[in-house]
Amino acid sequence: FVQGVFVQGRSRWHQRRFSHLKITMADGDPICEWILGEGGASKIKRVTPVGGGCINVANRYDTDFGVYFVKTNRDAETSMFEAEAAGLNAMLGTKTIRVPKPRKVGSLPRKGSYIIMEFIEFSFSGGNQADLGRQLARMHKTGTSESGFGFVMDNTIGSTPQPNPWTNDWVDFYREYRLGYQLKLVQQQYRDNDLYEKGQRLLERLPFLLKDLKITPSLLHGDLWSGNVAYDKEGMPVILDPACYYGHNEAEFGMSWCAGFGDPFYKAYFEVMPKQPGFEQRMPLYKLYHYLNHYNLFGSSYRSSCISIINRYL
Ligand code: ADP
C-alpha cells in the first residue's frame, strides 16, 4: 500500500478496478481492513508519513470518514501498542487533559504490530504552558489507583522494557522496578561495576531520601518531554506516546531536562498539586531513572550524568 494510492472500499466499480488492492487489503493489510470496516470509512484517500517519532513508523490516513493516525513497528509484539493504548485510555478516563483516543491494536501479517488512533491536528503556534501544568496536575490528582503503584501491564520507556507490577510501597517500587531494573541493564550491557556498585548503595539510601513524605499513587504519563507534548488547533495541550504507570507525582518531572517547562508551567501545576518540601532536592533522583535509561539506550555519553547524580546522594 503506497502513499497517494486512492482506495475505495465499497463501490462495485472500485472493487473491480482495484481488485488487486482489495486482495492485498484482505490478505495483508489489517490496517486498511479495520479503517474500511469498523473504522467507518468507505474510502482511504491518502496515506502520508508523519515524521518526528523515535521508535515507530507513523502515517496519517485521510479517509472520507475523517483522519486516522497509525503507528507500525515491524519488530514489536502487539503488547507494546496494547500497553500504549491502555495508557492512553487510562489518561482519557481522567477527563483532565487531551490525549488521542486509541481505536485498534493488532498484529501485522508476517511480523510486527500496529496501533490506530484518533488523528489530532496540531497548532504550529503552540499553546500555553500554564494550561499544560494545570491539566497535568489535575490528571495526577484525579488518576488514582486502589492497587498501589504500578500499572495494569508492563510497558516500554523508549524501547526499554518498563516493569509495572502492583506494589504497595513507592520506595519498594522505585527501588526495584525503576532504578534497580535500569542498574541491572547497565551491568549486563556494559559491565559497569563502578556505576552498578554505587547505584546499589544509593538504593539502600532510598528509604531515607524519600522519608517523611505523603506519597499516593498518581497516574503519570511517564515519558513527559517536549517531543510528547503538543497543542491542538484550539491551543489546548495534548500529551502523546505515554509510558503510563501509577507513581509518585514528582517522578513525572524525571524527563524535565528535555521538556522546557518554564515558571508558568510549574506555578500552575503547584496550584493544583501543592509542592512538598524538598521537591528540588529529590528532582535529580527522579531524573536518574531517565538518565540511566538514556545510558542503556544511547551509550556512554550519559554515564557521567548518572554518576554525578548518584554521588550527590551518597
Ligand atoms: P514514536 O512512538 O515513534 O516515538 P510518536 O508517538 O512520538 O512516535 O509519534 C510520531 C509523530 O507523530 C510525532 O511527530 C507526533 O507529534 C505525531 N503524532 C503522534 N500522535 C499523533 C496523533 N494522534 N495525531 C497526530 N499526530 C500524532
Textual characterization of the structure:
The protein is of the alpha+beta class and 314 residues long. Helix content is 42%, strand content 18%. The chain has 10 helices and 12 strands. A hairpin with a 5-residue loop joins β10 and β11 (237-239). The longest helix has 21 residues, at 170-190. The N and C termini lie far apart (56 Å). The model is unreliable at 1-26 (pLDDT under 50). It binds adenosine-5'-diphosphate.
Break the fold down into its secondary structure elements and pairings.
Elements: E1 7-8, H1 12-17, H2 19-28, H3 30-36, E2 43-50, E3 57-63, E4 66-73, H4 78-93, E5 102-107, E6 113-118, H5 129-142, E7 155-157, E8 160-162, H6 170-190, H7 193-209, E9 218-220, E10 229-231, E11 237-239, E12 245-247, H8 263-272, H9 279-298, H10 303-313
Antiparallel strand pairs: 1-2, 2-3, 3-4, 4-6, 5-6, 7-8, 9-12, 10-11
Helix pairs in contact: 2-3, 5-8, 6-7, 6-9, 7-10, 9-10
The structure holds adenosine-5'-diphosphate.
